């Protein structure tokens, strides 16, 4: 998985800040990149797969309700008169 440059830079800065402030263990660019690579490679696929499952469930629910919500009566002109 390849991240956009701006996203990668933001995440690297966030990792360095987290380790510095929360863990009191400053890390440099190389360590931050290793941490990012590990988490993207290790957790990325699981998060992506779950997002696909969630999106599929959402759209399945919306599509199953489509007929009832958007069904219009046909040949109704004379019935309304």
Explain what the structure shows.
The chain has 81 residues and is mainly α. The protein has one domain. It is built from three helices and no strands. α1 crosses α2. The longest helix has 36 residues. 0% of the residues are buried.
In brief:
This protein has 81 residues and is an all-alpha fold.
Observed structural traits:
81 residues; mainly alpha; 3 helices; 0% strand
Distance between the termini: 62 Å
Count of β-strands: 0
Summarize the biggest pleated sheet: none
Helix percent reads over 70%
Secondary-structure content class? mainly alpha
Spans of at least 5 consecutive residues with low confidence: none
In terms of DSSP E residues, the strand content is under 5%
Q: What is the count of DSSP helices, taking H or I runs of 4+ residues?
A: 3
Q: Average pLDDT value? A: 91
The radius of gyration is 24 Å
């Amino acid at each position: 998985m390849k991240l956009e440059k701006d996203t990668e830079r933001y995440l690297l800065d966030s990792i360095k800040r987290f380790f510095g402030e929360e863990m009191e263990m400053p890390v440099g660019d190389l360590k931050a990149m290793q941490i990012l690579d590990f988490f993207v490679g290790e957790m990325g696929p699981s998060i992506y797969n779950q997002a696909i499952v969630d999106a599929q469930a959402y759209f399945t629910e919306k599509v199953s309700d489509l007929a009832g919500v958007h069904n219009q009566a046909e040949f109704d002109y004379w019935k309304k008169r």
